[in-house]
Structures
1.
Amino acid sequence: MEAENSEVAALVEKFTGFHAAISKLPSLSPSPQVDALFTELVAACVPSSPVDVTKLGPEAQEMRQDLIRLCSTAEGLLEAHYSDMLTALDSPLDHLGRLPYFDNYINLSKLENDLLAGHMAAPARVAFIGSGPLPFSSLFLATYHLPDTRFDNYDRCSVANGRAMKVGAADVRSRMPFHTAEVADLTSELGAYDVVFLAALVGMTSEEKANTIAHLGKHMADGAVLVARSAHGARAFLYPVVELDDIGRGGFQVLAVHHPAGDEVFNSFIVAQKVKI
């Protein structure tokens, strides 16, 4: 136990250092300095760790919450940068490999599709909430795994949607409309979907996550499936954690939980089904 506590303390100290360094950056837009620092930060999250961020003290919790905010801003700027770069090219899909962590998006979409396929037939309609300016998740699922499925993408930022709708082949874009909306404003629309994906950065705190899941549970159709991106171990310094208890309280039954292993960089995710009340 003492060794574990020492390891957690060392990890908190390391991420406190990252937080301090990132906070001093004049801009979070992609640059050699920003890219190098965030590459180092992500690498520090990959090894398995005994840390449970819910048990950290108030000072560490405050640092972690601000680090998540900074990472969210940087991720949005990174996606916007690469979205603009790709759509300036004649064939954007031929150049997707330029994006950092491209392989991780490929692997994540395959894992999520495989888990879904184990619990349901191919969905007719899917919603992706928090699609962002570079909607790789829905793009890869629509292109490589679910060629007959309609993907409705929701983001609260109209500028992000404007960028996103330019990415992808024309036949795929025809099945991927984009809507500008806050998740809290989606009600009757949610009942039309067989699957709803909830992006990792929709809801930046545990309370916001819980409220979002409760809202989805209230309006999704009985039997529909929720795929919620989460975080585990040291990755929880970069992304909010979805608590399984909140999934249950939201009216869902957990079907599967996947935590990345080895050198996988992507998020954890939870697959759950709306229970008829």
2.
Amino acid sequence: MIADDDPLLREGVAMLLQAEGLDVVATAADPQEFLAAVDALRPDTAIVDVRMPPTHTDEGIGAAVAARRRNPDLAVLVLSAYVERAFAVELMASGAAGLGYLLKERVGRVTEFLDALRRVAAGGTAIDPEVVAQLLTRTPARAQLDRLSPRERDVLALMAEGLGNKAIGEQLVVSDGTVHKHIRSIFAKLDLPPDDRADRRVTAVLRYLRLRDS
């Protein structure tokens, strides 16, 4: 389902998804309508605008978080006109599986948008490259991140976008083994415990942000 108070964007995205053979079970113009539809229809995936009525500040984020509490299996792709770091962190604080955060301009790049949506719907993550870039640079307290080599930072940025090892290797023109080595080093340098949780890729970014805010 789609939740956005802009009728042109809301209906435009709905038409795009339907043209791709996806079922749009409902659209909503405000958080209350969105949450009611989530409860009634139990959609697999929701596309939610950050800024919604009545104040057009963070109602969309609050609604997305509330929807995930009610239905932990709900995949959520949040759309924002601008990079809003605090909102991205709040959304993913309880785990990043099945979550995405894209700038609205990405919708116009249909292939990228659909790829991100499908990744999130499948339980993965999709973080806008511009969001990742600002998350990695907007702080003076860089002690842990400074442990990373330039190549490890490149890998971390692509990890946070939601790319897998093969796609990272293709982007950086290195082997899968080299990518895996960099990722293990990143987890170690950011003090992430060794386990098999898929969301450690995004947690690597969030760990750095939490250190900055502490």
